[in-house]
Amino acid sequence: MNSGAADGLARPARAASTSAAMPPRVVVADTDPHSDAPRWLQFLWRTLSPRHVFTLAFVLLLPLVASPFILYQVAAQALVLGLIALSLSFLAGYGGMVSLAQMSVAGMAGYAVSVLGASGTEISLGWHWGLVVPLAVLTAVLCSTLIGWLSVRTDGIYTIMITLAIGVAFYYLALQNYTVFNGFQGFQKVYPPQVLGVNWRDPLPFYFLSLFSAMAGYLFIKWLVRTPFGIALQGTRDNARRMNSLGFNVTAHRVAAYAVSGLLAGVGGVLFVWYNGLISPGSVGTGWLINLLVIAVLGGMKHPIGAFLGAIVFVLLQTFAIDVIDRERFNLVIGGVFLAIVLFSPDGLLGLWAKLRSRFGPNQVVTSTTRRPP
Questions:
Q1: Is the dihedral of CA 278, 281, 287, 291 positive or negative?
Q2: Are 331 and 314 in contact (CB under 8 A)?
Q3: Pick from 125, 103, 262, 101: which is nearest to 180 by CA?
Q4: CA distance 270 to 266
Q5: Buried b vs exposed e over 321-360: b needs ≥16 C-beta within 10 Å?
Q6: Distance from chain centroid for Cα 351
Q7: Helix or strand or coil: residue 198?
Q8: Roughly how many angstroms between the first and final C-alpha of the chain, as a whole number?
Q9: How far apart are CA 140 and CA 129, in angstroms?
Q10: Which residues pair with 187 in a beta bridge?
Q11: pLDDT by residue for the chain (374 residues), tens digit each?
């Protein structure tokens, strides 16, 4: 009895000493005011930063200060080319696949709009735009998926050469075929439809149409790369063999990435043919295949916003470089800028900006929050 009583007294004493030695458990309440909001609203709240808000305010207020020439020839064109380049940046930056056929995919959507819709030729079928636009985008998605299915089993320079061969083959197909593609002349007077009494080819409406499409594509990619599919795609980019050993279908993820890029390029291709008002084999020639790669590299392939930044630089040089040098020497200027970016900042202009900030920005003092034992 005495021993039991002693044990009974000892147990509470040990428990008291143990509880005194262990620190009290602190429960932190969820202070996120948007925890009960819809998932898309939570995504916007976590994605948008002050610089995004500033950029949004700038592009919305730009029509108040910019001329119709700047609004249409520079801003709208940069947004459309940036959307097409975003499809290449997504493949290269998050999938590790450099495709030179993205302008060809955009051209397929543009030709589909011209053939199925209305143009200045008798080949066009003249269908309603509500049916033509979805079919054109679907055509781009299917063609891009097929290109991906053919090229994802290769890596590096072999993927580049296969996609380049496909792009060149499509150029010669459009050039030599007069039954469907109308040969060298292509299609003229391919204009956007008038919806709700608005002429969408006017500078202001077309600018906002391009802006809405570019913002939708940007936010879609920002959301997609955070999903399980996007994370797995980045895993296949870093180590495809390990992802395959973990049970992921690497080929399926890569082909699906090509389908997503086809969606972006298809929308951009429809807007591009509406912007130019025409499409011809020159719109999908080798020059444009290389120009799209230059745009993506200029901005930075690892960032979705880099495609639009590179497009702005490219369009500004294309528009105003002829005032300084001859038009024929424009490719020399673009090549020089491209070479400088590749040599000094492989991550494009955004990478160069990050280097400058790290070198000349304010020093950040890092303090440790770990308490030393007494």
A1: positive
A2: no
A3: 125
A4: 6
A5: beeeeeeeeeeeebeebbeebeeebebbbbbbeeeeeeee
A6: 17
A7: strand
A8: 41
A9: 16
A10: 279
A11: 444 444 444 444 444 444 444 444 444 444 445 556 666 556 555 656 677 677 788 888 888 888 889 999 999 999 999 999 999 999 998 998 989 999 999 999 999 999 998 887 888 888 988 899 999 999 999 999 999 999 988 877 888 899 999 999 999 999 999 989 988 888 988 988 888 888 888 889 999 999 999 999 999 999 999 999 999 999 998 888 899 888 889 999 999 999 999 999 999 999 999 999 899 998 898 888 988 988 988 888 888 888 999 899 889 888 877 666 666 666 777 777 777 777 776 676 776 666 666 767 554 444 444 444 44
**Dihedral angle computed from the Cα positions of residues 191, 305, 281 and 207, in that order, rounded to the nearest 10 degrees:** 20
Q: Are 352 and 341 in contact (CB under 8 A)?
A: yes
DSSP state of 328: G
What is each CA distance from 96 to 102, 302, 351, in whole angstroms? 15, 10, 18
Please list, in sequence order, all residues whose beta carbon lies within 8 angstroms of the beta carbon of residue 229, skipping any fewer than 6 positions away.
253, 256
Q: Under a CB-based contact definition with an 8 Å cutoff, are residues 174 and 289 in contact?
A: no
**Strand 198-199 and strand 194-195: pairing?**
antiparallel
Name residues whose C-beta falls within 8 Å of residue 330's C-beta, 6 or more positions apart in sequence: 317, 318, 321, 322
Using CB atoms within 10 Å of the CB of residue 3, give its burial: 0 to 12 exposed, 13 to 18 middle, 19+ buried: exposed
- For residue 184, report the phi and psi dihedrals to the nearest 5 degrees: -65, -35
Q: What residue spans define the domains of the chain?
A: 67-285
Name the H helices within the chain: 2-21, 39-47, 50-65, 68-69, 77-95, 102-116, 129-151, 157-176, 203-224, 228-238, 240-245, 250-276, 286-299, 304-320, 330-344, 348-360
Cβ-contact 41, 34 below 8 angstroms: yes
Q: Residue 114 is which amino acid?
A: S
